[in-house]
Specification:
Chain lengths: 137, 139
Amino acid sequence: MCDATSDGIGDLVPRERALFRACTRSNFYNSANEVQPEAFYKDGKNQTDGLSFALTQEAAIGKKKTYGVIRITAAEIHAAREGMEARLDLHTENHVLVRNMPCMDREPGERAEAEKVAAELAFKARVVSTARTKKIE
Amino acid sequence: MNFLRNAWMVTPPSVTIVDCNYAADVGTINTIMNAMGNVGYESDEPMPKATVITNAARSLCSVPIQGAQISPFYGEVNITWKHGHDRVKATFGPAQDMFFVYRECFEGGRVTDSHLEEHATEEYLRQSLDWLRTHHQNV
């Protein structure tokens, strides 16, 4: 898979912990508030250490422009695909990186796997907030 | 938005597309542009190039895009059609000639069948949309 860097990767997140992901695009969920696969697409060139999640909603939003927040558990991440792990980021408090996730910008076999994993995670994830936030400079 | 202006500029009025006309082509470009402008971008994410958008419009002008979800992703134009949880997704770019079509059958929280066609054609996309419609009717 396409995690190019491993610096600052900490322990596994306990299975029962909820993970939150900021909706940095409006298409992470639809008008019926169903999470869409796009919420779990990873671009390997730009997300070199894993896909970003957080242990709290506030940490997920940070200073970003967002369209809401979605929730999934660490257990659901770990069960999605062999080798996929939610791990603490030692550099940033409350930040979690999902490792060993297939990437969208790799050869077609990996891209197809990335689509499949994203669809299955989207089915399990839930929208917990649709509040929009503005970017804080 | 320069890339919007460029998308128009690189589509000369004399272009003739199989099964399409210029008005349909421009209409599809407008639909793509409007949809993509509403989704949002990651910081430092490259936008799709004008040539990718015009290629997408040409390939899409003979298929229905009403109700499809259109969105950018790191220089790509993605168009997704859904029936229930089954989906067909066409991807154009980021390279000018890239055109993928992905089909997915989804049941009980799992992907039960999927295929990614890496050298897709307009005909393959039409067949995939037929598959999506008929598969959903037969379930």
